[in-house]
């Protein structure tokens, strides 16, 4: 991932140096296990732990000759220890024993970072949900004004979805946090299972119950797919903010820093560029899913068609997800919410958004539903075409309506309060309470 969309924590985690250091950690643990079994001389693993080092530049120097990164790595490490001790580096192992184990460890660590990110975002969204719980806003279906609703419910919905994203991330982390030291075809021909067990315990990640030369790539595909779904949530949020920042709507406004400029040609512009960036990069994140799924199919016990793909998609997908979540957190925390515009938009159709309540009131008082629908629709469409006489006024002058609805009853049907009457109950049902013990709430 390019630096523009990468935070330092992920750049460091996925650097060549960190990868080689993680390989070295696996190698030293394997040597310790061999020594405990009495298969290599006493003191070797201790000297390797103290003396063995790896330098990414040196590995690259060897790789230009070998065209094999693991052999280049082994040679670079061997240069830092005695010739006798160097004999026991990579003892009994195949390349992917080290590579897949280290990759699983690094990916699990990256998911830990993203889980922390999502927890922070979810808390910011929770705060907005509580602040706006009883703020009325027009609901829109098909992009058209529907009925009034609570602006807080939008945030509550995102809070719940982010909770499901958290659960998926935890499951994906558990799935990927699996290692293998089982040899060239996975049958422990050159090293006993005890070596794998020891390294697994030291790394605190589970050993795969069965592997070939590689860990099976459904694990990695689950990680990438989970990150893509998380990106979909962020894209959904960003799109809602973008739509709500349109000049004609003006209900939400992403943060605009002091000194920021929105357009090279038009000084008045304040564009939702951060949300647009999230929507755009979420497409990139989704694009990693197909390669991850295709990596699941390898020839026999292993080929390396997956390897080059994973060098790109795993660092990039986790780095991008980390960046997008932290960006969205900043947007949510700094978002400007224009409740006055929400009220204006709610009232702009002159009460047409209350047509559903009028329909039900007429039916409840004896009018057939089809006839009531025709009456309400006729006056609603007339008011929309000619707002000089409001929807409420047209209904009030209709003889059929006047016969069954008093002016007082009709007026009460144009009140926004009933549309918010169950909001508290919804918040309680989903666990979105203001008390600390209910701070995170259940996943619904």
Automatic annotation (TrEMBL):
Segments forming domain Adenylosuccinate lyase C-terminal: 350-431
Catalytic reactions of this protein: N(6)-(1,2-dicarboxyethyl)-AMP = fumarate + AMP; (2S)-2-[5-amino-1-(5-phospho-beta-D-ribosyl)imidazole-4-carboxamido]succinate = 5-amino-1-(5-phospho-beta-D-ribosyl)imidazole-4-carboxamide + fumarate
GO cellular component annotations of the record: cytosol
Top EC class of this enzyme: lyase
Keywords attached to this entry: Amino-acid biosynthesis, Lyase, Purine biosynthesis
The UniProt record lists the keyword Amino-acid biosynthesis: yes
An annotated Gene Ontology molecular function: N6-(1,2-dicarboxyethyl)AMP AMP-lyase (fumarate-forming) activity
GO BP term (any one): 'de novo' IMP biosynthetic process
Keyword Transmembrane: no
UniProt EC number: 4.3.2.2
Pathway: Purine metabolism; AMP biosynthesis via de novo pathway; AMP from IMP: step 2/2; Purine metabolism; IMP biosynthesis via de novo pathway; 5-amino-1-(5-phospho-D-ribosyl)imidazole-4-carboxamide from 5-amino-1-(5-phospho-D-ribosyl)imidazole-4-carboxylate: step 2/2
InterPro entries: AdenyloSucc_lyase_C (IPR019468), Fumarase/histidase_N (IPR024083), Fumarate_lyase_CS (IPR020557), Fumarate_lyase_fam (IPR000362), Fumarate_lyase_N (IPR022761), L-Aspartase-like (IPR008948), Pur_lyase (IPR004769)
Family the UniProt entry places it in: Belongs to the lyase 1 family. Adenylosuccinate lyase subfamily.
Name of the protein in question: Adenylosuccinate lyase
Organism of provenance: Sulfobacillus acidophilus
């Amino acid at each position: 991932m390019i630096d523009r969309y990468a935070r330092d924590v992920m750049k460091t985690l996925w650097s060549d140096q960190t990868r080689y250091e993680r390989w070295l950690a696996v190698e030293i643990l394997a040597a310790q296990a061999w020594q405990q079994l009495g298969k290599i001389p006493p003191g070797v693993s201790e000297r390797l732990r103290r003396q063995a080092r790896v330098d990414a530049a040196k590995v690259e120097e060897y790789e230009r000759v070998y065209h094999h990164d693991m052999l280049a790595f082994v040679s670079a490490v061997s240069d830092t220890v005695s010739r006798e001790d160097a004999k026991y580096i990579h003892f009994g192992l195949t390349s992917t024993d080290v590579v897949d184990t280290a990759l699983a460890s690094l990916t699990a660590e990256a998911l830990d970072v993203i889980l922390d990110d999502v927890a922070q975002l979810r808390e910011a969204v929770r705060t907005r949900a509580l602040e706006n719980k009883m703020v009325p806003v027009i609901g829109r279906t098909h992009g058209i004004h529907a009925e009034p609703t609570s602006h807080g419910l939008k945030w509550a919905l995102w809070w719940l979805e982010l909770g499901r994203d958290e659960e998926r991330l935890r499951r994906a982390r558990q799935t990927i946090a699996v290692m293998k030291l089982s040899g060239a075809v996975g049958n422990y021909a050159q090293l006993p299972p005890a070596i794998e067990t020891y390294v697994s315990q030291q790394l605190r990640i589970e050993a795969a119950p069965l592997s070939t030369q590689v860990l099976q790539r459904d694990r990695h595909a689950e990680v990438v797919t989970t990150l893509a779904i998380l990106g979909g949530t962020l894209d959904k949020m960003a799109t809602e903010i973008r739509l709500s920042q349109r000049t004609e709507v003006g209900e939400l406004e992403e943060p605009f820093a002091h000194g920021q400029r929105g357009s090279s040609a038009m000084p008045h512009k304040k564009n939702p560029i951060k949300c647009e960036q999230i929507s755009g990069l979420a497409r990139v994140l989704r694009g990693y899913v197909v390669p991850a799924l295709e990596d699941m199919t390898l020839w026999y016990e292993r080929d390396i068609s997956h390897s080059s793909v994973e060098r790109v998609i795993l660092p990039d997908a986790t780095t991008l997800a980390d960046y997008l979540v932290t960006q969205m957190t900043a947007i949510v925390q700094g978002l400007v919410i224009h409740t006055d515009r929400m009220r204006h938009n709610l009232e702009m159709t002159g009460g047409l958004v209350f047509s559903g309540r009028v329909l039900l009131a007429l039916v409840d008082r004896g009018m057939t539903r089809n006839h009531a629908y025709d009456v309400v629709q006729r006056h609603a469409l007339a008011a929309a075409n000619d707002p000089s006489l409001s929807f409420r006024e047209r209904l009030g002058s209709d003889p059929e309506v006047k016969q069954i609805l008093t002016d007082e009853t009709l007026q009460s049907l144009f009140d926004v309060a009933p549309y918010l009457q169950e909001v508290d109950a919804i918040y309680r049902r989903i666990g979105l309470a203001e008390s600390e013990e209910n701070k995170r709430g259940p996943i619904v």
